[in-house]
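Hallway conversation turned thread

IA: we were arguing at lunch whether anyone had actually written out Magnesium citrate secondary transporter end to end. Turns out nobody had. So, for the record, here is the sequence (121 residues) and right after it the structure tokens. Reply here if something looks off.
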Amino acid sequence: MSVIRNPYFIVCCLLFWANQFLERILGIFIPFVHEYLDDLLAMPVVLGISLQVFRWISPLKDGFIFTKTQILVGVAYFAFLFEFLLPMFSPVYTRDFWDVVCYGVGAVFFHRQINTSPKDI
């Protein structure tokens, strides 16, 4: 199945968009949602978009999936960039261990629900 047709991917994208709309357009900030929803959805959205691009260019097409190592590298990259490096240079970013946990949970969700090939379904 194409990633962009996967209902789990679509729901993650819609939730991410809805949260951004509430915060940036309407100025509504729901405390727990404001702090962690984007981090929870980051891996399914970013890895899902990346997976779709790889499927477009790979000879395996819909049979292409990311390995657990590749997903782990994605989580490590986000954790390093957003929880270590950027907070050193900008007050906009803050270090939060729970953000890393959210990246991990989102990555597990991505691996189980979005990172599937037709033979897995």
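OS: looked through it. DSSP finds four helices and no strands in the chain.
IA: good, adding that to the notes. Residues 3-120 form one domain.
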